[in-house]
Here is the input.
Amino acid sequence: MSTINVNPAHVESADSKPDSQHGYSANKDAYLLRLKRIEGQVRGIARMVEEDKYCIDILTQVSAVTKALHAVSLGLVEEHIGHCVVGAASESDPVVRAEQIDIKVKEAADAIGRLLR
Here is the structure.
């Protein structure tokens, strides 16, 4: 599966409210569609286990789900960088800007670290 394209049209400030739009908001329907597809794949894996299917066939499906989740994760990281980090960089106050950029970049680095574990 290909990654979800980033739509940089919507950029908000780094100090946005929790209820404001997130970087992925423009692609929310695509993310939900992909996650529902993944959910169906996981149900299929459970059904394979219930039906005592061959272990290698189950592992093949687990690998496909893992790759699909990684694609969603990478899309969200890309959205975070393109939206939240860029938003922080547009802050007018230089001190706040530097602080917000540091926070948003650390969030991205931490998320990437969790993905790599």
User: Anything to note?
Assistant: Residues 12 and 87 are 5 Å apart (CA to CA).
